[in-house]
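Record 1 of the preview.
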Amino acid sequence: MKYVIGVDIGGTFTDIVCLDEEGKVKIEKVPSTPADPSLAMMDGIAKLASSMGKNLKEFFPDVLRICHGTTVSTNTILTGSGAKVGLLGTKGFRDILEIRFGIRENVYDYTVPQPKALAPRYLRMPIEERVKWNGEEVIPLNEDDVRKACKYLKQQGVEAVAVCFIWSFKNPSHERRAVEICKEELSELYVCGSCDVQPEIREYWRMSTTVINAYVGPALSRYIKHLVNSLEKAIHEAISKMENLPAKTELAPETRASLVADSTNGLKSRMQECLTAAIKSTQETPAIVAVEEIKHLQATETETKSEKGGA
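->
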């Protein structure tokens, strides 16, 4: 029996839904673990496996896919527990983040204060560069400005850096170079550029989205890394068990060898790809393909059954 697992990690509870190939559904609910949400996920999957009379080593080889959604980013914003963010922007456009569209939430209420910018003004660094609306370079990127900004932000103890230049979605060369320099100078920090996060017109939307991405980036990165490490450990244990399958198992030797080799050699890089995609994405529900190789096992078993039926 093969399974697909869906996980919804909330602030209070983590819900695990398991669908088998016959369409039957099993559900587990466990308390969330805010310090490391991946712990609740693995606990829920373990309880799900236990309800079927299996442990994780026995259960994971039958899992085709694990997809999950999380409110880690939303909770980080609501609780104000995100990173200290520095912003690099085109010189002359330092205050876009606070000017916004010049519109209040309640147009006629002058007493309502503006929300505080996630990157305060003293951490918003003007960089000499300019690109026109059609992508044509007007002023070359001043790399010294970028390096000086990095030095200053490091002194201020920032934890993440966002880069957003005017018209960068038309010509991202300046922005990409600035991101490269930031990663060189601030290698231990989370760095992102608007040309990767939201390469669209409207500078406030693009800048604010990029700053939010930087604000939640470190917390989400830590979470995804813990999750991937937990899954990777469980999957490697499952692969080790598959490598020692008894001879009577209905699996062709060459298929078993290929499956184990492919899993062992490709798992780490595949997990890294998933991790990178999840970190770059601003979506709340990054999907992680946990054991795609197991599809070969299902196909082989199906072929074996068909051959037996034909005989």
